[in-house]
Backbone:
């Protein structure tokens, strides 16, 4: 992957497929700030890998490892949901290690986060024959206790960058759809989401490659090393 030009998801898929080894699942991470478009890129990439190359692929979202609302409520941290310590990072690392090391064909279960329930749903995704797992989440490159173990279980990590105004607009829409008032959304964004985004931005230079979405294509800001 060279830097300084736009690339399509189909072209990205071809590059990933070329790196998938025989006999082992390839685990690609997509990191970046909230609302940068990580889920969209992960979904489109997995779909292109399957449709263009007949390689089974699935998404493994980090958000499935949110602590439950009840757990956070018990320690007065529900209002901080989404910050690094509101995740079960030990469980995430353990399952991620299994995802990468389990023989192809062996079942590995993976949770998701339900935005309607505002809670994780255990074992919602089943990995077995999928040769590519796309792990997307905010803190894949975070150098903090627990999180610093994540990178060892990812074959490569892309950082999806986005401008602050884009992040704030998308977060506002997300919070309104989730049932917050505009005032509640503004408080959540100012007090939690944007500080998180700045924390995550500090991990950008640790990524294998840095991309930015541009009308459905992606500008390669820094090439893979």
Residues:
């Amino acid at each position: 992957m060279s830097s300084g030009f736009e690339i399509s998801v189909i072209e990205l898929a071809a590059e990933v497929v070329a790196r998938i080894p025989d006999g082992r699942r390839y685990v690609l991470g997509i990191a970046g700030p909230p609302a940068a478009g990580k889920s969209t890129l992960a979904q489109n990439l997995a779909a292109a890998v399957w449709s263009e190359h007949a390689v089974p692929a699935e998404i493994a979202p980090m958000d499935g490892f949110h602590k439950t609302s009840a757990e956070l409520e018990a320690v007065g941290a529900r209002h901080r949901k989404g910050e690094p310590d509101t995740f079960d990072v030990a469980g995430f690392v353990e399952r991620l290690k299994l995802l990468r090391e389990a023989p192809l064909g062996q079942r590995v279960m993976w949770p998701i986060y339900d935005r309607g329930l505002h809670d994780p749903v255990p074992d919602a995704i089943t990995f077995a024959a999928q040769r590519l797992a796309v792990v997307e989440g905010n803190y894949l490159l975070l150098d903090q206790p627990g999180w610093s173990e994540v990178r060892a279980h990812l074959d490569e990590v892309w950082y999806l960058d986005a401008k602050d105004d884009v992040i704030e607009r998308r977060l506002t829409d997300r919070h309104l759809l989730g049932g917050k008032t505009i005032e509640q959304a503004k408080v959540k964004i100012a007090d939690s989401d944007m500080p998180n985004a700045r924390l995550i931005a500090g991990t950008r230079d640790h990524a294998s490659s840095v991309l930015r979405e541009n009308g459905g294509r992606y500008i390669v800001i820094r090439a893979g090393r």
In short: The helical segments are 9-19, 38-53, 69-74, 89-101, 164-177, 182-201. Residues 176 and 183 are 10 Å apart (CA to CA). Strands lie at 6-7, 26-31, 57-61, 108-114, 119-127, 132-136, 156-161, 209-214, 217-222.
